[in-house]
Design brief:
The chain is an alpha+beta fold. Helices cover 49% and strands 17% of the residues. It has two domains: 165 residues, Sandwich (Jelly Rolls); 107 residues, Homeodomain-like (Arc Repressor Mutant, subunit A, Orthogonal Bundle), CATH 1.10.10.60.
Length: 294
């Protein structure tokens, strides 16, 4: 991972950093970190970050969207095509936990909802920090430090809202671990068996299709048809980059109803045609071992 830092402000309780991140062309596991991080996406035209090991599989779906990672949380980031400009606010554990009144165990219950936060107030506060970094005014460092504390207060309120929602009757309804495991195992076998229909997955779990749609969303944060589509897209990318099969053959292998539909769906999700993606993937030089990581 390459990190181009534009600005850094350090305070007694943490750091504010403006940076552009460029990801490696392979999946990257970000190791557990000692601090709490609240980040905002600044890039306008950029695909969401893909996450491989948390209940929420996407982060930063749009410009100004905000995501939170608690300390000690390891994240598997799937490769993306272009650099991403971000505003990152990190907080020392002591200050963060004293200000929010919440412990690390509390955040574990809501990881899926925190990776991509829907909170307009947090977005506005992050934008206030960004504006001061870009056009500093009188006592801008003091102002930014004050806003970072306001961020934590708002985040603590948001976390308590999540607690209230999860306490409502039926809110905790989700797939059992064995049901989720069966779904994931069936999707992993798609190379030999083809991608499953919703009815097949529901039958594997012993529930109705409507119940599957509700509980899968509760368990993963994803709609099940989008989850399957994401896996099929990643398989298409891998086949286009690594094999010499035609787009027609790949479309048939992955169960698309026609090569034209495959091309349309691929372009809608990646911004490129299959042939454009293949050309770029094969033209991309291999990174030397250890180069560009951080």
């Amino acid at each position: 991972m390459q990190l181009q830092i534009e600005q850094t402000l350090r305070f007694s309780h943490g750091t504010v950093q403006l940076a552009t991140v460029k990801w490696d062309p392979v999946a990257l596991v970000r190791p557990p970190h000692p601090d709490y991080h609240l980040c905002q996406r600044l890039s306008k035209d950029h695909a969401p970050l893909r996450i491989g090991n948390l209940r929420a599989r996407e982060a930063f779906p749009r410009e100004r969207s905000v995501g939170f990672l608690p300390r000690g949380c390891a994240v598997k980031l799937l490769p993306v095509e272009s650099p991403l400009r971000v505003l990152d606010c990190s907080f020392s554990p002591e200050f963060f936990e004293r200000t929010t009144g919440l412990t690390p165990g509390h955040w574990d219950r809501h990881t899926g909802s925190l990776v991509s936060i829907r909170n307009r107030r947090l977005e506005v506060l992050m934008q206030e920090i960004y504006a001061e970094l870009m056009q500093p005014g009188f006592a801008h460092e003091m102002l930014i430090e004050a806003v970072t504390t306001m961020l934590l207060v708002e985040l603590a309120r948001y976390a308590r809202q999540l607690d209230r929602r999860s306490a409502r009757p039926g809110a905790g309804l989700a797939l059992a671990p064995w049901q989720l495991r069966r779904i994931q195992e069936r999707i992993r076998a798609a190379g030999e068996l083809g991608y499953p229909k919703l009815g097949e997955l529901a039958a594997l779990c012993g529930i109705s299709q409507s119940h599957l749609m509700r509980t899968f969303k509760a368990a993963t944060g994803w709609q099940i048809h989008k989850y399957v589509a994401e896996d099929r897209l990643n398989a298409a990318k891998r086949l286009l980059a690594e094999e010499h099969a035609s787009a027609r053959d790949i479309a048939e292998r992955l169960g698309f109803r026609s090569p034209a539909y495959f091309a349309t769906a691929f372009r809608r999700m990646t911004g490129k045609t299959p042939s454009e993606f293949r050309s770029e993937a094969r033209a991309r030089p291999l990174n030397p071992a250890g180069a560009g990581t951080g």
